[in-house]
Amino acid sequence: MKTIQTVKRFWETISGYLPVLLMLIFAMFTYWLLQVTPKAIKKEVSLPRAHIEDYFMKGFAVTTYEPNGDIKAHILGRYARHFADTDNLEIEGPHLYGQSRSNTRSLQKSEAVANVAISNSDATQIELKGNVELVKQDWSTTKSAPITLRIKSEYLQINSDLERVHSNLPVEITRGLQTISADSMEYDNLERHMHLSGNVKVVFGKK
Fold it and tell me: Which one-letter DSSP state was computed for residue 45?
């Protein structure tokens, strides 16, 4: 029972906005790409079906701002390529950052890094592969240090339409001195439900 309660407390910390922030970052980045890339080829000319990139970017960075000038989202990468046959965008060395304020005016910051990120055209299906790390910080106005939660895995799949996060590879979730590990993870943000399977362990650190 204590393990179940600990898992619930861990996930309630990020259930409200971490997946949503990641979706927002990718959606804004995809929209920006559509604005800066050339117009589509005329209808009578069919796009090649071979799996080759039709446009790319190197060493790019995109930042969006709130009306008051605060940074809303930032994404950078070493290389981004688009494939016409799948309409997917692949980013090497992605670094994603987003921040927002809650109704209580506390500041939430989220960062994600991976070796590769793959997104479909409307950013509803996103895959993070290789050395994936998500870090969420909650800066309460009444506390000098943030509440930090960290998720590590080699793979995360995010469905923004259904607000689900999935990994079929081992995950590690850390909050303060407490750590939860499992062989796989399924999280449904709409239902506020998380399922950890495999070799599930909870470690309570010493102060």
Answer: S
For 66, list phi and psi in degrees, rounded to 5. Answer: -75, 165
Please compute the mean of the pLDDT values over residues 139-152 and round it to a whole number: 76
What pTM, to 2 d.p., does this model score?
0.71
129, 122 in Cβ contact below 8 A? no
CA distance 13 to 11: 5
Does residue 58 lie in a domain region? yes
> Which domain covers residue 19, as residue numbers?
2-36+52-167
- What pLDDT shows up at residue 75? 82
The size of the chain, in residues, is 207
CA distance 207 to 138: 21
Residue 11 resides in a domain: yes
What angle do helix axes 18-36 and 2-15 make, rounded to 10 degrees? Answer: 30
